[in-house]
Amino acid sequence: xxxxxxxxxxxxxxxxxxxxxxxxxxxxxxxxxxxxxxxxxxxxxxxxxxxxxxxxxxxxxxxxxxxxxxxxxxxxxxxxxxxxxxxxxxxxxxxxxxxxxxxxxxxxxxxxxxxxxxxxxxxxxxxxxxxxxxxxxxxxxxxxxxxxxxxxxxxxxxx
Length: 159
Hints:
By secondary structure, the chain is of the alpha+beta class. The chain has helices at 12-25, 34-37, 42-51, 92-106, 121-129; strands at 3-6, 53-59, 62-71, 76-83, 111-117, 133-141, 144-152. The chain has one domain (3-152): Aminopeptidase, CATH 3.40.630.30. Helices cover 33% and strands 34% of the residues. Strands 1-2-3-4-5-7-6 form a 7-stranded mixed beta sheet, sandwiched between helices. The two termini are 18 Å apart.
């Protein structure tokens, strides 16, 4: 059974390991890079954990994925989602997105937004299945571009 847990600041080394694995596995899916983050100090990782909700997915002691949501004035922003290749297609991504949405609702916010790389068709399909709608707003990212998507979650039915 897949377990989900919100990371505590004390788990900074676990966050570092999973995040660097994600950046190495799917560099085209992120705006940051392995080369940039590999040199982050412990304090940088701890600061990330304090800034929002970082959710770990695991099963049998093995980390399967990671998602993060950060509060903004009028919404929460899903800023990271990664699922280990061997765990893809098992509902881990859905569970992680739902966990971030639940954290947003618990903090009084029903609007969850994200930006998805244009070429990341697998993630786009997942987000559409989960009720996200493209806004038509695009942002250039190097030689790529990403589109903004939003989802409104009812406070009474979330989680």
